[in-house]
Amino acid sequence: MMGMLARGAENIYWLGRYLERAEGVARMLQVLEQISLEIRGLDPELSNRIWEDLLHIYPGSGMSRPKNDDPDQIAEAFIRNFLLSSDNTLSVAYSIRSARENARVIRENLTREAFVLLNECHIRLDAFTQASEINRMQMRDALSFTRQEVFGIWGAIQQTFSRDEGLRFLDMGTVIERAYRTLLLLRVKLPFILESPSQSDLPIYYARIRAMLKAVASLENYRRSHGADLDPMQVSRFLLFDQRAPHAVQVCLRMLKRQIDDLEYGSPMSHPSRLLGKLAARMEFEEQEILASSSLETTCSEIAEQVIEIHQAISRLYFTV
Amino acid sequence: MEWRHASDGFDEAFTSTGDVRDLYEGLVHSFESLNEGELERREQLQSMSLINQGITFTLYGEDEGVERVFPFDFVPRIITGKEWDTIERGVVQRVTALNLFLTDLYTDQHCLREGLVPHELVFEGEEFLRELIGTRPRHGIFTQVVGTDLLRDDDGQFVVLEDNCRNPSGVSYVLENRNLLFRVFPELFNQYGVRPVELYPQMLREVLGFTAPRGRENPVIAVLTPGIYNSAYFEHSFLAREMGAPLVEGRDLIVEDDQVFMRTTRGKQRVDVLYRRIDDTWLDPVVFQEKSTLGVPGLMHAFRQGNVTIANAPGSGVADNKAIYPWIPDVIRFFLDEDPILPQVQTYIGQKSADASYIRDNLNELVVKLCGGAGGYGMLVGPTATKKEISDFRTRFDAAPWDYIAQPLVEFSHHPTWTGEGFEPRRVDLRPFALFGDGVQVLPGGLTRVALEEGSYVVNSSQGGGSKDTWVLAENQP
Q1: Which residues does chain A have within 8 Å of residue B263's beta carbon, measured at their own beta carbons?
Q2: pTM for the full predicted model
């Protein structure tokens, strides 16, 4: 059977990662803006500090904490940087531009519908990055339309793409990015949510758990499964293991495994497959041990490292022929 | 809504007295039935369509790397079935003769021994590749794809301005222009039976498959591009997508045991046909430019061994060298024993001393071109140039007169073109595309390029040109 061009596979894999990242960062910015407003009156210092979560969930942005203490200016600095900056390789604009560059490289593998939607999104966002003055309201609009347009692109991909290797690599890039960010979010947030709050801190405590679930598009799904009870262990289990949560780590790893199994059907087991099998088995059979571990955030860190190893093994095997 | 006709030269849509030609009456009527607001709305729809679909080319020079939309003028150019028949026969004749000429140049060289073409013009041009002497591509086909640039002279007759035998580009716009017009002005098609152009990718694939190395059933065809920063990258990816072929760069390919392979997710995969959109000199660093990172080491050897088809074949450029052009009518007579169907423009050759003096003394009246130039670069249009431009050009010409040819300024035909305020006459040319496989076929359409600036002769996309949809009418149409 003929494989796809290795460089094409790499570009389509990264197209998936960048689209997921763009939508993820845009969602995170919306959530952080809302939570910081929600708790500003209750804990102004936390309302400012909460933006720093971004630096830990998306490390390598190059952004440092603003020296200013003005909550509006802090919020604006983070939103502007993570939405529009061309120096921040994790910004929404950078991710969309990179996704579009990947798409141009492999345009012969894309359908016209998917390319046009991505190009439209890039052009619309690029107009914002070129504009001399962008106010906060316009940035909010940009976050909303970018998310909507990325959903549109995914829709076009699902509806029009050929069911071949290209789609597999795209899905692989998407779920690796998703699993990795969920794990980093858990790593950052678990120390806080696993603490017992004092009675007076409860409103902030639950607001932050809700924000955490929203940050991975899971609040509604969680409520559908567990009602309004925001039990911290239940939330952790939901984001790590629940099959109903599209951003749950185990769901992502299962999808990744399915794609790799399809790719390697009839071939001897590869290195990425072996690494993934090991991790998937741990997630499958050691759920209780993982949840009961003394430092769940450290475990999440370890799993995140393993996800990166799988990414590297995929790159070596498929993209460096 | 104002329509202005050309005051000089042939106007495609109007007679010399300003009456609408019968052929264009339906079209003019259709546009007149739209009010200006509607036209503006459609124009906006068209612009957004071009931008959103990324139908672009990339600029070189000052704005290097910048993607630009190739301007599209929505007033289609119409060619009758009868006129097309002449064009088609003329192009088929020319492409057939050019391939016989190339085969002869690289094998027996009868045409040189019999003095048909001066030796020095062939051997001194860098387009002739000595490395390929003795090589005969499959079926003797050097140029699977040829774009022949035509003008319509003052008498309404089509004449050949030049042949493009290396990497003729623009066919993607032919197809996209048609799609765009269908979407934006569907009513224009109501009164005309327009021959379709959508078959081109299928025709191209068949031609490439036909010329694949002997014994390769279901050959693997790939399009070879220099990469996303090449000016014609949109076209490369367009053709790859439409043909269902992978779009490869040099770094995706390796040559082992004189066979070409591409690097895939399942290891190395043999490639049989490379539709290359890279110039000869970048194809293989072992043979040509040592520092080329665009090409593939060993590719030329694999080609000489007949293990891979390169389309168009390396060395084809000798047939479209501007210095060889004056001899093409003789080439047609020599190889086909026929008179040329399409006339061509009188040409002075800088390599001949008498011609060089004439060119030097008449720069203000001539169009002077670099023999190896393309895209309108390195060209002087004497009648519209300033004194300084002529003087600067003379300095360059004197340094290497043999590098130039010159032609009298042939008036292009004009075609109504929407300027945003009205329909104004603008100069147009025509590039039909011929495919050579199991016979020569000409796509019934072609790229009509238009000089969008008033008074301009330059139709190249890189220098302010645009394009139009070109309608070839079915035979039963007027």
Answers
A1: 5-7, 321
A2: 0.90
